Amino acid sequence: MPYRQVEKIRLVTLGIRAAASSFEDVILESFSVISTVPSLKRVREAKLQHRCFEEIVEKFCFEFGSNVSFELVGFLLWPVMFSVTYFGNVEIVRICLQHFPDLIFGHLQSGNEHLLHVATGCWQEEIFNLITEIPTTRANLPNSKDNYGNTVWHSSAKLAPSYNLLSVSGAALQMQKELQWFKEVDNFIDPGKKDLMNVIGKTATEIFMEDHKKLAEEGEKWMKDTANSCMIVTTLVATVVFAAAFTVPGGNVGDTGIPVFLQRTDFLVFAISDALALLSSSTSLLMFLSILTARYAPEDFLLKLPRSLIIGLGSLFFAIITMMVAFGATLYMLLKDRWESFYIPIIALGCIPAVIFTKLQVPLFYDMVQSTYGSGVVKKKKTQ
After folding, report:
1. Can you tell me the distance from the alpha carbon of 353 to that of 271, in angstroms, rounded to the nearest whole number?
2. For the chain, where are the alpha helices, taking DSSP H only?
3. pLDDT in tens, 222-265
4. Quick one: 109 exposed, middle or buried, by C-beta within 10 A (0-12, 13-18, 19+)?
């Protein structure tokens, strides 16, 4: 490299450091109020480093965009592009591609590799969206291969990095996310290209089945353990409310079988809530039974098994609530005339176990609903 270019790079580097230092002073001043809080201080430092890195890359791209050969730029920036794509820093990728669009194909010592393979293999949906918005990339997506003959669909079939998997709780939800990502990339592939094999003669589907075999087994165990635990509670609820339907509070009139409190409003509340508890607990029991008897094919983790678990948990929550309503109505009928001040605290104490169980299971229910019926793995941009 000519001496003038080397000296210019050195001077610009010093300028970037000065800009980063001034930016640091501004950030430190704005965060001076919370500098004594350790956790917020670590967040501040991480954001500061991230922003300074963006400033450095943007300064470099702007200064040498037209003065340095693309080979040199690729040699310097491709390792950066690879690293930030791997860890999901979409802003750095956007800055680099704005100045050097050809960097999307990357340059490695072993040959050329499309940057989209890195984003797909590391489950970086934002970078995947950014790259696929480029018309030439989207048009050549089915034909792009890495050095081992893997298409983008092959890359999506591989098991995600551990830091991505650990962001999802439960092996079944992890398997569902993997399937959602695999199906999402599948939407971009030409149907005629889906049977392409890599250099070792494997299709994307075969790679997915092999790489996710252990995760599918862990997901099956997690699903069965969850269903077994909830079935115990469901069975108890169904047994209690079924028995309560034939041993109504207050008893029956003689041999007619007509309940003594039949004409009372609180008895009507008891009867309706008990019937709803029995129906919902029976529904929950059937859903958990279907989970235990499922065949557990990989595609079942996408919708079938999560939907059964959602219906089962939702029905169980509703059964517990209606059972407690029936319990409260019964105590009200039996105690209101004699111990009017006692039935309210008794009902409140009786609700504590139900509240505890619901609080423990609601996060799982929410995660399952969000994962199954949410916006999906790849967030679509709203059209203007």
Report:
1. 22
2. 3-30, 38-64, 70-87, 90-99, 115-121, 125-132, 135-140, 152-157, 162-165, 171-186, 204-211, 213-246, 265-292, 304-335, 343-373
3. 999 999 999 999 999 999 999 988 887 777 776 777 777 777 88
4. exposed
Sketch the domain layout of the chain as residue ranges.
217-373
Amino acid at 377: V
Distance CA 76, CA 66 (A): 15
Tell me if 185 sits within 8 A of 150, measured CB to CB: no
**C-beta of residue 347 within 8 angstroms of C-beta of residue 327:** yes
pLDDT tens string 98-144: 877 777 765 444 445 577 888 888 888 888 888 878 776 666 665 67
Where helices occur in 31-158 by DSSP H, the ranges are: 38-64, 70-87, 90-99, 115-121, 125-132, 135-140, 152-157
Q: Are 204 and 151 in contact (CB under 8 A)?
A: yes
Neighbours of 243 (CB within 10 A): 10
* pTM, two decimal places: 0.75
